[in-house]
Every structure is written in C-alpha cells, then in structure tokens.
Amino acid sequence: MKKYTFIVILMLLSSCLFSQKFSFSIVLDPQITWLRTELDNVKNDGSVFGFNGGVVFDRYFTENYAFSTGISLWQTGGKLLFTEGMDIQTRSGPETLDPNSSMTYRLKYLTIPFSLKLISNEIGYVSFFAHVGINNHISVGKSANVPSTDNNKVGIPEEINIYSMSYFFGGGCEYSLGGNTSLLCGLYFTSGFWDITSSDEYRATLNALSLRVGVRF
Q1: Could you count the other beta carbons within 10 Å of the beta carbon of residue 19?
Q2: What is the radius of gyration, based on Cα positions, of the chain?
Q3: What is the pTM of this model?
Q4: CATH fold of 2-216, please?
Q5: What is the Cα–Cα distance from 152 to 166, expressed in whole angstroms?
Q6: What is the C-alpha separation between 19 and 192, in angstroms, rounded?
Q7: pLDDT tens track for 10-58
Q8: Residue 132: which pLDDT band, with cuts at 50, 70 and 90?
Q9: Which of 22, 29, 120, 209 is the most buried (most CB within 10 A)?
C-alpha cells in the first residue's frame, strides 16, 4: 500500500514540472475532531473543537486538474474513556488513571498534504472543486487533562508518536471576485491511517469533520 501511494505522489510531482498555472490559498478550517478506537477497555468519549489553518499551493497540470500541497497548523484531539484504568507517562512522571477515567487530548501538528484537486469550469462566477489526498503530520504539541492531577494541560510527550499520516476527501465551491482572486468554502472529512499513540496497551486514530473557508489568489 505504501509503495503504491509513493508512486502516485511521484507521478503527480512529475506532472507539475510541466505546469504553467500556479495559485495559493489562505485557509482556516474550524472542525470537530475525535479519537476512534476499537478496543473494549478504551472507548471514544466525545469530540472536541479544533482548527486547521495555513496556506495551500495549487500547481495545475491541466486546466481543471491540480497537484496541491502546502503547510498548516492542525489543532486537534479527542476524549477517551479508560474503563479498566491505565498507567500513562506525563512530563512530570508516571500517573495511574482510575477505572472509568476520561482523558481529553489536546494535540498540535504541522501538516503537509499531498493531494489532487479537480476544478470545474466557472458557471457564472462560481466553480466547484473536489479534493482528495494524504496528510503528513509532525507533532509539535502533546497535552491532556489528567484526572488524577486536576490539571487541564499536562504534557504527555511519550504517549503520542511524533509522526502520523491520514487521508482526506472533500469538496466545495469558489466564488470569483475578479482576476485570480476568489472566495472558497468546502466540507472535508479526515481519518487517520494508523495509531497516533506510542503505548502498547491502547491505540487510537484521529478523525475530523471540517468546514473550510479561505481566499484563493
């Protein structure tokens, strides 16, 4: 699976060398994020509000198809319920969670996507787009509320992996303001490929439902 993914990325990058059209967008994605787990002793206990904000670069290799990348700061997280309790490592040392303890994760990632965007021709001032790809996430912030410490922001650097990957798909529309400038709005779904935790006792993947708003130049 990884082999074919990287082959597709290389093909897209090669296509971009022949592109003559380039644009960039400033985007902000308010979102609902949650952690998904399939274990009996660890369960999803709710979602949290997050956001993703940054710049997106589009390089067109035909009139309606573009390779898309960029960089953004993703603030995400979720809530997990540990029905049998759990030992975790915090920045100040080990902590033991009591049975049926709920912990809210607050995570930050630098995100670099590799994706393909399909854009329709303009109908009046409006065009539509579909967007699909993968995200590379590098952890830059790892904290959680730990019930046994009565602290809402405890560092948990050893509990979360430094690198993660997810896939996303979405779509929306752009409204032309004239020239190369347009307003954009879209809806996206993101889901993690693999476990974000470093623990052998439990695992979880990140998920998000986002509303994208931005300006394209």
Answers
A1: 15
A2: 20
A3: 0.86
A4: Porin (2.40.160)
A5: 27
A6: 31
A7: 555 555 444 468 899 999 999 999 999 988 788 889 999 999 999 999 9
A8: very high
A9: 29
